[in-house]
Amino acid sequence: MNVQYVDAHCHLQFEQYAEDDAELIERMRTEGVAGIVVGVDLESSQKAVTLAEKHEHLYASVGLHPNREADEWYEMKKYRELAKSPKVVAIGECGLDYYRPVEMNDEVKRKQRAIFNDQLMLAAELDKPLIIHARPSRGTMDAYHELISILEEAKKKCPRLRGDIHFFVGGIDEMHALIALDFTVSFTAVITFARDYDAVIRATPLVDILSETDAPFVAPEGRRGKRNDPLATIEVVRKIAEIRGEDPEAVRTTLLANAKRLFTLKD
Known about the structure:
alpha/beta
């Protein structure tokens, strides 16, 4: 397959695709779109690996989302076993989510940090990149600031630690701090209709950007409110080029190379 785009974060194993996943995955193949299918708990991670092992252009990431901390305790040995698959290219999605509508308290934050730390350690042990979910509380950058502190400490012990900050909504200062720690930032189709991220997209070095969809969520302009899919990464890449005022083909090839480098994807 001649890969032209990589959706760095999608959830093709979710129930929203139960009736037409085979058709959609075939469309991805014909249009040159590869995808990282990301787990949010043990069951969805298992499904991600199964799906990736069936299709040359799909890969998997296995992890426990911070919003699932009340539902599942992280059993590292089970995720380590899943990560033995050659199609597992990352650990996550994992991280910190302080945006939740339920009451956020110190105990919830402690559990999120503990689960994140376990996954961080597994990524270091296996020398795989992390896919990080970080969402600050409204009107702040608190989750990013705490994430940066955690990663700074972790890099002292695990200098090869690296990864992608999925669905980045931070500012220019947070972006620079994360890139300095060997992390890329990825943008979704929200950039096709919201202008909140334009300044950050222009300020970020192109070699540190990935494109993603977070499908089935956040469909692009023209499909808002409907199910999203990994084909939308084509629109994301074009919009990044438009926002930056750069050649679309040069942006496409650079973002493709960025994803291949981070996730060690074969040509």
